[in-house]
Specification:
By secondary structure, this protein is an alpha/beta fold. It has helices at residues 36-44, 62-68, 86-100, 118-134, 178-187, 201-211, 213-225, 231-238, 247-252, 273-280, 341-351, and strands at 2-7, 53-58, 77-80, 105-110, 113-115, 139-143, 154-163, 166-174, 190-192, 197-200, 258-262, 267-269, 288-291, 294-297, 300-306, 313-316, 319-326, 329-334. Helix content is 32%, strand content 27%. The chain has a ten-stranded mixed sheet, with helices on both faces. A four-stranded mixed sheet has the order 13-15-17-18, with helices on one face.
């Protein structure tokens, strides 16, 4: 049976200053009335019934999560007592599902992705579930053709064809530099890792046992305690001491059993302001995308994002720039350098400026 797991515990540092520790990007309505979290939930409910949705989030966000998705019952939410990155989060969700249904098929999604063509999304997820019946040994990734040399995404190289619409991945590379990303774009057989994975939970847990045995041991202890009176105590004793590492580095880069289903999803990982620009724009590359009260003069290829209702932001004679104005912080950065927003976070952490984190 197919289940969906939404991972929604990240802070979204590259979307600072709009995304903060107390109000991360997934619970913010950037491009409409609904938040990215709500849109993700609605999307997965197109392929699974609502009672088969599991959500993983940090304890700091649980109140907001319950407010935004009141349909979720207690047994459908995994609350992280402390942030430990995505490998522990994904592994624990798989372990919980494996206890409840050893033959479970898990759709893994992040809560901060944009998908334009949701009909294609539904079609490919259901195809992946079908293909797993004959190929249960694979972790199937529904991948996107790269549109530019992005350095913030993982890439998968397609190898031999396994079945109709299914290819074996030759290798996985997480966040290459610009030169390498350009080479991948020109090669034509590399795809963006969307992390829209479909797998048998037992297959994924075998990967943890192989590549992260210490983490696997802790996951099995948590699995044993799950849905018992010892669940909360076990989480507090075990989860905060698990290795903090992304599932990309822990599993995907090492696995030799990843398979690909290419799809035209209109996909973006909304993890940076440049990705937000892609989501919000409608025309050519020189377009100026604005949100809020903005005046733009002689400006092109720019994102101007103003969250202040009573404040005007004017940008004149600028190119390749992102301007983000919030009530207590202003970001001005070259649009092509948007990955460097994380350097601001490092400075804030080093100086103890908790207010602006």
């Amino acid at each position: 049976m197919l289940y969906a797991v939404i991972v929604a515990g990240g802070q979204g540092t590259r979307l600072w200053p709009a995304s903060r520790k107390v109000s991360p990007k997934q619970v913010r309505p950037f491009d409409g009335e609904k938040t990215m979290l709500q849109k993700t939930y609605d999307r997965v409910c197109q392929v699974v019934s609502p009672e088969r949705v599991l959500l993983v989030t940090n304890h700091k966000y649980i109140e907001e999560v319950r407010k935004q998705i009141p349909q979720l019952m207690d047994g459908q939410i995994i609350i992280e007592p402390s942030p430990r990155n995505t490998a522990p989060a994904v592994g624990l969700a798989a372990a919980v599902l494996a206890k409840r249904d050893p033959e479970a098929v898990m759709l893994n999604v992040w809560a901060d992705h944009y998908i334009k063509h949701e009909d294609v999304y539904k079609e490919k997820v259901l195809l992946a579930e079908q293909l797993l019946e004959a190929n249960p040994q694979y972790l199937i990734d529904i991948v996107a053709k790269p549109e530019y040399p992005a350095t913030g995404y993982g890439y998968l190289e397609a190898g031999a064809q396994i079945a109709d619409e299914l290819w074996l991945a030759k290798r996985f590379v997480e966040k290459p530099d610009t030169e390498t990303a350009q080479q991948y774009l020109e090669a034509g057989n590399y795809y963006w890792n969307t992390a829209i994975f479909v797998w048998k939970v037992r297959t994924l847990l075998d990967m943890y046992a192989q590549f992260k045995p210490e983490m696997h041991t802790k996951l099995m202890l948590l699995q044993q305690a799950w849905d018992t009176e010892n669940q909360e105590e076990a989480m507090l004793k075990i989860f905060p001491y698990m290795e903090s590492i992304s599932v990309d580095y822990a599993i995907f880069e090492k696995a030799t059993n990843i398979a690909l289903i290419p799809a035209s999803l209109g996909w973006r990982d909304v993890g940076s302001w440049d990705a937000m620009y892609d989501v919000l724009k409608n025309g050519d590359v020189d377009e100026v995308v604005t949100q809020g009260k903005v005046i733009k003069i002689d400006t092109k290829n720019a994102l101007i994002f103003n969250e202040n209702k009573d404040k005007l932001v004017a940008v004149v004679g600028m190119e390749d720039v992102t301007v983000v104005d919030t009530p207590d912080a202003l970001l001005v950065i070259r649009k092509s350098k948007d990955q460097d927003v994380k350097e601001v976070i490092k400075v804030l952490e080093a100086t103890g400026d908790v207010k602006h984190l």
